[in-house]
Amino acid sequence: MDKETKKVAKMKSANPEAEKIVEWGAEHKIETCFERADKMKPCPIGAPGACCKVCHMGPCRFVGKNAEEEARGICGATLPTIAARNLLRMIAAGTSAHSDHARGMAFTLLDVANGEAKDFKIKDVRKLYRVAGYLDVEFEGRPVNDVARDVATKLIEDFGRQGKGELYFLKRAPKKTQERWKKWGIAPRGIDREVVETMHRTNIGVDHDPDHLLLQGLRTSLADGWGGCMISTDITDILFGTPMPVKAEASFGIFKEDEVNLVVHGHEPLLAEMIVDVVSEPEMIAYAKSKGAKGINLGGMCCTANEILMRHAIPTAGGFTNQELGIMTGLVDALSVDVQCIMPAITELSKKFHTKIITTSEKAKIQGAIHVQFDEHRAKEVAREIVKIAIDNYTNRKTKGEHITEKFPVIAGFSHEYIEYMQGGRWRGSFRPLNDAIMAGRIRGVVGLAGCDNPRVPSTGLHQFLATELIKNDVLIVSTGCGSAACGSSGYLTPEMALENAGPGLREVCEAIGIPPILHLGSCVDNSRILTIASAMAEEGGLSDEIGGMPAVGIAPEWMSEKAIAIGCYFAASGVPVIFGGDSPVEASKEVTRIMTEVWFERFKGSLHFEPDPEKILAMALDYIDKARVALKLKKYEQGKFATEKVLMDMAARRDIEKAAKPHIGIY
User: In this predicted model, what pLDDT tens digit does every residue of 47-57 receive, in sequence order?
Assistant: First the structure.
């Protein structure tokens, strides 16, 4: 381990600006998640999945060298059964989080179609029609709201389907992938049904076969990926526009000392979109100036930040572990939160500063916070109330805090549709150039770098290490969620990054197309974009005829949420090897580990691994990619040596093609 690596290993956060705030907090005896992580050690029995708490006869602890073979719970359950059951409950919880979010989006789309949510409107009609096509909803010559009503109604059916049938979006997967799901009985029926069945199967005295349990876990996770996540992504695009590249800024330097700083944090975009509109209203700006501020500065954290960053270039202060640190700058006048990944510690911390914490969801309240209930039917009214709270609090701002000025440029906004467009324009858009670049060896493979950031490691450091090393090895990265925030707040999301750090093949592709080597695809629910991109690559041909077998890997190096487990499992079930950082939550059972790594790979060409060493994660990812290239009979990857010499079209060439074509509105 070199000196620089040792230095980073001792840091709380690998982000220098975050580390400054942590050190300032330590000097002022302010506790954050980093100090709590040091104090609170993981339970040595529960952490590896060796504890069962599903009935009141327990908890039962499975300990000892031969626990796998000999230990039994009071009911007689074995360690593999317990470990599998614990993982299933994590999958069910993660699926519930994403899918409950998606349900709200579906009902909002229905309200918009019925004229009952007047502050919202359908901004991307083309995306609406595209989704209507997947659902067999007729759209030619029909009023837009009628189409939207039918689309919303059909998508809502996916939540409560009780009888025969499958999720509508499963047919967007390659046929061979669908065939694997049907062969092993994991094609999900209704989203809620799978979650309920998972909770039933893991109750005392029901399902005890680890393999059978884990198959249900995969089915539930698929209900998340090809159901809840995909539904949410599509509806968000329909209502607020499908993302296209935008330039923004990231890190704590986005906060302004002479303006009202309002931060939105969480995961649901509905209220955040309204706040984006409201902060630019002349009346609101005038009100802020009447309080002595020069204006209103809106920023974001976590996945709500990603939603408005992708569409409006609103700057982001980072991911999960930055929420307390943002308050500690002393510059945040109000922090508006909705659901998921909100630390309840922020209300107690805010008392040491002046920040107002505002909860907005009926599902999520925090003691000590102001509650302003969001209602889709009076969305802008609620948004104005929140903005006024921030403005009124500007005059209470104190001088204390670690003011950070450093910030980094970010290029974000890469949707499935735009990636398709950027490879050939409106008329020749496809995934052929990407497939060709992989086949030629310019791009070695693709990695989805996602997941949370975690205070138990040098936060964001594993993302930074893997991002740097992967692109050096000509691996194109697609990122989402806090993984994107980690890259953005470190200055990794610009085309210049490719010139400085990417391998020669990847650099050539990035220069020709005009993209960064790390493509920011959005929030954690937008992992579904990776599924549709992989499906499009399979349909394009030349590589694998299914998602499984492609030179592609998923990595969540700093995961902490149950949502991450659900995401990892739906990628594994779809055919992608997935590697999580940190210790395994099923480490206690060799049998469950074998099923997730070996049996899943044999059946679905996907797998789920846990590995705490980032260098081993890198080696494992490259090994999976190289073995996939061999299996696909692609030329062995050798950096800088390409199998063919096809000329990549640059932006100028594509514009010439478009000029020769008739005018066309939209990007797809």
Answer: 999 999 999 99
